[in-house]
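Q: Convert this sequence to structure tokens.
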Amino acid sequence: MQNKTNRYHIDYFLISVLILLAVLSVFTLYTIQPYLPPAIKETKFYLKQGTWFILGGLMIYLMMILDYDRYRKLTWYLYGVGLALLLGLQFNIPSPLVLTLNNATSWYSIPKLGTIQPGEFMKVFLIIALSHVITSHNEKRKSPFIKDDLWLLVKILTVAIPPTLLVAMQPDLGTALVYLSITGFLILVSGIRWRILFAILGLIFVTAGILFGIFFLFPGLFKLVEESIFSHALERFYGWLAPEQYANSYGLQLIRAMLSIGSGQLFGKGIMNLEIYIPERHTDMIFTAIAEQMGFIGGSLVVMLFFLLIYRIIHISLDCKDPFGGYLGAGTAGMITYQVVQNIGMSLQLLPITGLPLPFLSYGGSSLIAYMMAIGLVLNVRSRTQNFMFDS
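A:
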């Protein structure tokens, strides 16, 4: 019988890193407040972000009340709700609540509550659903054959593809790529044979190489994309590869981001000393504000905090004796890792610019609550993981 006094283990290390990220987020939003565009300058984003963090803390508590294994029984209810909300956006149902911003139909506008972005919460539901699918499959097949691995891959893709397509058609390719990163990380740890995984990776690289070749050799073929709902993605691709050529349009944000980060040099220009204007600085481009004010030292601090966060999540996943709990942690680590690499990478021209926030730092209610839900799952796994003497 489990000892009640030892049942719950609070991971103070993970919580401490989360608190540091919260403080850095609110502080940075406070410092950039005077530099925001006039249309949104009166909105005190740092106060609203603090409120979201408080609500996020409450969400972590609520996620920990229920034993994480119970979420397996709720898997398809949560997944179904998330899918229904995405379908509602796609078919404009209910019409008065569906909101389109920056040519993307990704939000519901709830009177007196604000906007809600279902795509953010679907990230957490997808982690739970895929973890359940992989766990259930492996429980029934202790010595799987290659056909079993292929069948698992089919089941994973069957769950992952519908929400990915629905989000991509909003269009929100950034969030769609997050779904793919979650799926990819969980496929890597699912137990599928490496020969199959290498074949998939090879196919991806070959496809990417062909697309790059077509782009440079036959640019006219991309005219079809320019006339589709994904034209914005191609514009960002142009701005990434040749920002100077498109300095007054597609490459403007990237050029200013690199100027901002570079001008911070080693120690930064000082707090509340921002000279370069960048659109969406309080959301997608918040890293540039940190780097300009606090320089390379401040940027390195951000990277270190995320490294500690991801390291701790992976450590908790490896310590968990229950596969389902381990997969929950792996999916969360994959989600955060991809978004951190993508967000910081796009500010340094290492990757194309996408509309992805920097987890826990960028302003945004739906995204922050979703991240906190995922952290709640990880803390739930840790709190119910028992370590015994002589464990290997």
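The two ends are 22 Å apart (CA to CA).
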